[in-house]
Fold this protein.
Amino acid sequence: MALLNILEFPDPRLRTQAAPVSQVDSRIQTLVDDMFDTMYAAPGIGLAASQVDVHERVIVMDLTEDRSDPKVFINPEVSVIDDDLGTYDEGCLSVPGFYETVERPKVVEVTALDREGQPFTERLEGLMAICLQHEIDHLEGKLFVDYLSPLKRQRIRSKLVKEQKRRS
Ligand code: QAP
Ligand code: CO
């Protein structure tokens, strides 16, 4: 059991593009396990490795209240099934305390490797589809605040910087 430090906006390390995982070995499995510990402790429903300053393409997710459906996506590739868009009030462990409406495709298909390095393909919709797209954005160095107006983003940035200074 290990808790990892979660980077917070506007930390520039969150802008790093993550590299593909070349081999799902015990190092990656330990990272996955530590990411679940960190996400469940927060608590959160999704976490990308970028958020814990590991710039490799690894995502963990569990939308259930009782932590009964842990999902791992390594090197995820997502394709949009149709161009039907939906909105959701998204949050992020790297943007604590802020929730804003973001629009994304409603249904996607993902191909990825699981914790054992086995490839799988799944069609996702609802919160699963939203959360996966949000987490894949992290791997590209993108945050949900990037979809907001510059004014809203700047307000969130100022409040978080103030809070971070207060804590340090
Ligand atoms: C990403 O976010 C997500 O502000 C996962 O104070 C969220 O787990 C994708 C959290 C919603 C789509 C929709 C946020 C915890 C957790 C906070 C999270 C906070 C404490 C966020
Ligand atoms: Co996030």
In short: The beta strands are 46-48, 58-61, 71-80, 85-90, 100-105, 107-113, 119-125. The chain has a mean pLDDT of 98. The pocket of QAP (ligand 1) is lined by residues 42, 44-46, 88, 90-93, 96-97, 130-131, 134 (CB under 6 Å).
